[in-house]
Amino acid sequence: MLTVILQARMGSSRLPGKALMEIKGKTMTQWCIERICKTEMIQFMGQLVVALPEGASNDRLHDHIREITKDIPKPLVHVFRGSEEDVLGRFYEAAEFHDATTIIRITGDCPLIDPVEITNCLGMYSFSGKDFVTNRPGYPDGFDVQIFDRWVLQRVHENATRPEDREHVCTYMTEGNGFSVFKIVPEVPYPKQLEFSVDTRDDLERVRDVVRHYGEDFGVVDVPYYCEKEGIA
């Protein structure tokens, strides 16, 4: 099944507990889930799996996800618990348990993840015929989409041994290692300093400001206008 796997956790060295921090009355995790669920292909033929670490420190986040998704009819939203340290292992086990075929990786520090961009990346994945498709680094940080098949993930899980590969899931694919890689490049380059992901308190305030001034549906298509208004070149 077409599956979005959303990585989330309470632990963060730079901003602990950010998964439950609020942006305009909703938690970061809720922003991610609601925006992912607006992706039409996921609504009608997919599922969302939130991959959380085991341990009591993440129980509150688990309960929160259950509460905010109980009334979502489609897509099916699941929570999977796995290793905190071996993120790749957790990701692979989540994919296996929920019978994922084509996998879309999203991280929980991207509250402005764009359902239109997810759809566009799925189209490029289907068209390209490549093993691994990503819109980074061409598109701004915070709109990250990575797509691959479960057999690719299985091979990475079996062969990746470096700590950074076990932590970041897709570095082994990005570097090739026998996989064909397609990096989506925008027609007009975006300024490299653009960041819409949340790793620090300053990042969180920036995203809150974006939502406050540019609307809750802010997406990739709005970035040029944002750059013009903010004087970013």
Strand content: 15-25%
The strand line-up of the biggest sheet is 5-4-1-6-8-7-9
CATH topology: Spore Coat Polysaccharide Biosynthesis Protein SpsA, Chain A
Q: State the share of residues found in helices, binned by percent.
A: 25-40%
Quaternary class: single chain
Number of helical regions: 10
Query: In angstroms, what is the radius of gyration?
Result: 17 Å
Derived from helix and strand composition plus strand pairing, the structural class reads: alpha/beta
CATH class: Alpha Beta
What would you call the shape? globular
Largest sheet: 7 strands, mixed
Outline the low-pLDDT stretches: none
What does this structure look like?
By secondary structure, the protein is an alpha/beta fold. The chain has a single domain, classed as Spore Coat Polysaccharide Biosynthesis Protein SpsA, Chain A (Alpha-Beta Complex), CATH 3.90.550. It is built from ten helices and nine strands. The strands form two sheets. Strands 5-4-1-6-8-7-9 form a seven-stranded mixed sheet. The longest helix is centred in the middle third of the chain and has 14 residues.
